[in-house]
């Protein structure tokens, strides 16, 4: 079958929405159940695709799927209540009127998924389905195996006129897609691409959600349980090799806390991985080289080994890091944890950018 252009895909979805195919609440519930069935019945295919793209461990993929399934259960449990008209308080000017608020669908929604957690970035799709919209689903071109699996399998469960999967091979094709008129855009990914999405949305004043990461600091107070804290911080930093928007980016603590934290962090990694702490690899050469460059000149106290053939970076902790160092100027998005020492909580707050 010949691949449709971006304009054709959006026009088909808009025609389906205008004909009311997705507005019926029974229809919405049916396709939410079908989406859950897709996740339940195709777990192995999803695991294989994400291993091919990211060499992601099976348990990490199952973790993503479980979150998506729980989100679907939440939508299905509350949908009927959400679609009921609301009766706001009346003003004196409309005392004799029937006043209602209806939560109507917007139309055709574009959901642009991220490469780091492809299944999780499908959750806005299910939210848009629950709201009665048609949805154009665009997986990241950095995950071709997952995107192809989605394009081939999802139409068995969802109407492809209402919920098409549109694959783009590069940024140019994504730009063409963004030139189309949507009624809402949901993007998950980097700030640099987020700016492009926002600029494209300006043309039609399209409402947009940009779900992006940042430099998420962790302040460790001297009163904390440092063994538990180190275990949790290192778990967050190692999940998907730190390639998650909510991963701890760096630690702020006193010098005495730092010393004990490093001991517990090393023990946590040994507990997680044994003597060979291998997370999944970095997604591609570009990001691997960026991370390797950020590691240059750091005082590394844990890890630090890299393998350019495998795009592998060992979970790494660095001390004596200055707020002015290159690694502190951008979101790390990798398994490298810098520690910046401060004298107290107030000092930590003032150190934040």
TrEMBL record:
The keyword Nucleotide-binding does not apply. The active site is at residue 211. Keywords: Oxidoreductase. GO terms for molecular function: aldehyde dehydrogenase (NAD+) activity. Residues 3-350 form the Aldehyde dehydrogenase domain. Signal peptide: none annotated. One of its GO terms (biological process) is aldehyde metabolic process. GO terms for cellular component: cytoplasm. Belongs to the aldehyde dehydrogenase family. PANTHER family: ALDEHYDE DEHYDROGENASE, ALDEHYDE DEHYDROGENASE TYPE III, ISOFORM Q. This is Aldehyde dehydrogenase domain-containing protein. It comes from Tenebrio molitor. The lineage of its organism: Eukaryota, Metazoa, Ecdysozoa, Arthropoda, Hexapoda.
